[in-house]
């Protein structure tokens, strides 16, 4: 898949993690 797709997917996963309260995963 194109890099944009990967970036979007990663961001979506990061957002989901943030929603769960796992900020340490993103930062």
UniProtKB/TrEMBL annotation:
Residues 1-27 are annotated as: Disordered. It comes from the Eukaryota. This is Uncharacterized protein. It comes from Nymphaea colorata. The lineage of its organism: Eukaryota, Viridiplantae, Streptophyta, Embryophyta, Tracheophyta.
């Amino acid at each position: 898949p194109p890099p944009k797709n990967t970036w979007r997917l990663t961001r979506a996963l990061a957002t989901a993690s943030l929603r769960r309260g796992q900020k340490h995963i993103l930062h």
